[in-house]
Design a protein that fits this description.
With 260 residues, the chain is an alpha/beta fold. It has 2 domains: 44 residues, no CATH class; 182 residues, Carbonic anhydrase (Beta-carbonic Anhydrase, Chain A), CATH 3.40.1050. Helix 1 runs antiparallel to helix 2. The protein binds zinc ion. Zinc ion (ZN) binds next to helix 5.
């Protein structure tokens, strides 16, 4: 660890790019980049020590045995959105995929891993207020790099849409896309696709930091979403019916390979 810190502080010095912080008089003063990095890493080490001290050996033993997460979560990389906002112990519970704009298209393998290999009963798409990716897509992002454009191109929202509406539109369309992709798992009652928004800016006027559930397997009526038991019970018979139909339908003969 000491060696890592040394390397990082050398890297910090080599960058020689001063960061700025406010001094005691509220004036902007140049701070050596390495000072910022060392303080950050020391903070991580201190927090990690607390974490080790407040979690029992049994907790880590359970994690060591393997994972059976409850949800595959696709969320934005935005640093302001973290699992501790809605889950006090996400370890082993959330299989998380992050990218700009919480989109499935550029993370399909990871999402499939969660749904097909870890069999999470929930696939959650989580957007958030004041999303930079959504702001970019609803404006002009033609000057971005190809790598960034590739990811933003997967998001379809109207131009000039206000940010929180764009965020909701994107979450709904991610849910729709996932429902098509995982139609079989949903029909068999093995998967529920959920759309949510973390509203730390209170743009939806229901409290800063509120997690809003806005879509459950395509249902977006707030009154119905408030009553999850009834909603999921109603979706169940359909799933059971589909599963029964699948069981009684004779398997199709394998398609002959195409010859060219
Ligand atoms: Zn974002």
């Amino acid at each position: 660890m000491k060696r890592l810190l040394l390397l990082l502080s050398i890297a910090g010095l080599a960058l020689a790019k001063p960061a700025y912080a406010l001094d005691a008089h509220g004036q902007e003063a140049a701070v050596d980049q390495s000072t910022v990095i060392v303080a950050f890493l020391n903070g991580l080490r201190a927090d990690n020590s607390v974490y080790m001290g407040t979690h029992k050996i049994e907790f880590f033993a359970a994690l060591s045995k393997g994972q059976t997460p409850k949800a595959t979560v696709v969320t934005c990389s935005d640093s302001r959105v973290q699992a501790n906002m809605f889950d006090r112990s996400p370890e082993g519970e959330l299989f998380t995929v992050r990218n700009i704009g919480n989109q499935m298209a550029t993370a399909e393998g990871s999402v499939e891993y969660g749904v097909h290999h870890l069999h999470t009963p929930v696939l959650l798409f989580l957007g958030h207020s004041r999303c930079g990716a959504i702001a970019a897509v609803s404006g002009n992002y033609s000057k971005e790099s190809d790598a960034i454009k590739r990811e933003l191109d997967t998001i379809t929202i109207a131009k000039d849409l206000n940010n929180i509406d764009g965020v909701r539109t994107n979450v709904h369309s991610q849910v729709t896309g996932a429902m098509l992709k995982f139609a079989e798992e949903i029909a068999a009652g093995q998967l529920t696709v959920i759309g949510a928004v973390m509203d730390f800016a209170d743009d939806l006027h229901q409290g800063a930091g509120k997690l809003h559930l806005i879509n459950v397997n395509g249902e977006t009526d707030p009154a119905k979403l408030d009553n999850l038991n009834t909603l999921l019970a109603k979706q169940k018979p359909k799933a059971a019916e589909a599963a029964a139909k699948k069981a009684t339908t004779p398997a199709k003969p394998a398609a002959a390979p195409a010859h060219h």
